[in-house]
Amino acid sequence: MQIRISWPIPQVYTVGSMDWNLQTAERLTAALRAGEVTSVELTEDAITRIERDDTVINAICVPDFGRALAAARRADRALARGDVRQLLGLPVTVKESYNVAGLPTTWGLKEHVDFIPDEDAVQVSRLKAAGAVVLGKTNVPVGLQDIQTFNEVYGTTNNPWDHSRTPGGSSGGSAAALACGFGALSIGSDLAGSLRTPAHFCGVYAHKPTLGLAAMRGMVAPPSPPLPVEQDLAVVGPMARSARDLTILFDVMVGPDPLTHGLAYDATLPPARHEHLRDFRVLVLEDHPLIPTGSAVRAGVNRVADALVAGGAYIERHSPLLPDLAQAARLYTQLLFSGSAARFPVEKYEELRVRATRLDLDDQSLDAARLRGMALSHRDWIETNSRREPHRHSWRQLFADFDVVVCPITPTAAFGHDHDPNPLERRIDIDGVEYPYFDQLVWAGVATMPGLPASAIPAGRSPAGLPIGVQLIGPMFEDRTPLRLAELLEEAIGGFQPPT
């Protein structure tokens, strides 16, 4: 039996008469420019809060407070000169997997505890160029390959709403930090819902950009050099406590790597398709053919659907244009697990290949898809990958009739910590019935496999008081459309609330 540990009533640290820790980045920027507060005051306030509260959450695994205060002093001087950079003076955090010059990058791997890069990741450089004050790095699972956040180097990160539960992964440290007021913004990454799931579990916002839209150089497993390598399925993206903040940080992050595509072009994205809720055409999904949706998540989806209808939006629950979700999930699973097994020792790969040949040809389970994916040869991978483009084309056709698809991120709210060393033996409980642990990734794959943008937004609470989020999936390279709908829904149903 799990015992819910309630988040304590927070002690309020104030600058003047205002508690700044949980204010939005947009509000803080306005206050900094108006002289209501200084960057040093905000940074000291955030550090005090982290030192007080993070002993039980363990979100900030690599603090960098000395350099943060120095950056805050520089920001205050720049503000005094009239500088108006997007993030000037804002305290932020960075996922541990990003290289930050002078700080360790381990990806939770104990053999790399001494690896310290001497160059910032391109996205860290963009944060700093925009004037952000980096407080430190946030915790991750081992190799970024879990839906939880724990490792032998930095330990376990707890969900701020219930310490017996996970904040999600792999950007779980960033989501927990935001929920606790440890900085105004954070950056993470997403391959299998690693931005969206922690946002859903912790009650904050995140955006998975269109595949290839935001440069990833320097977000690389140690001790690999920070080269501009493009990774299949994976993206980097923003996390925030409000939808508007999400867009602000997205604008800082978006754009090609200056070492490659950035030599030839800039990113110029189309505007949002609509500015008002009443003009949106939305397909609402709550059921997946391969896994049930828990009642609490279903209620969150329907809360958003009700808000859309109340705001005059056009919604449908079904469409013949929707790609085959079961087929897409199997394809996504094979592509995802082929990458996870790519560096397995030869003998391990050969064992997997032999096991895969013994599968019944009629076995279309996700367990079979995982095994087939891990055993793919290069030839087989190319054939599997060739089936992705027809799915993308189907999505293009669907987005001619709809602007956004609303659907779950995972089937449940945050689940209890489960450190079974073999994740294939883990199970998740969906309304009293157990399912394979990794089956819950199918909803993340709806957007990831075809490379679509998806914004994660808060959508209420479960009966146990846990946050529930949903994702808004948009057309490829039309990221501003789901981001704008996120802003409108925040106005309609409310947004982030601090843990209670």
TrEMBL record:
It comes from Tsukamurella soli. InterPro entries: Amidase_CS (IPR020556), Amidase_dom (IPR023631), AS_sf (IPR036928), FAAH2 (IPR052739). Residues 41-481 form the Amidase domain. SUPFAM superfamilies: Amidase signature (AS) enzymes (SSF75304). It comes from the Bacteria. This is Amidase. It holds the Pfam family Amidase. Gene3D superfamilies: Amidase signature (AS) domain.
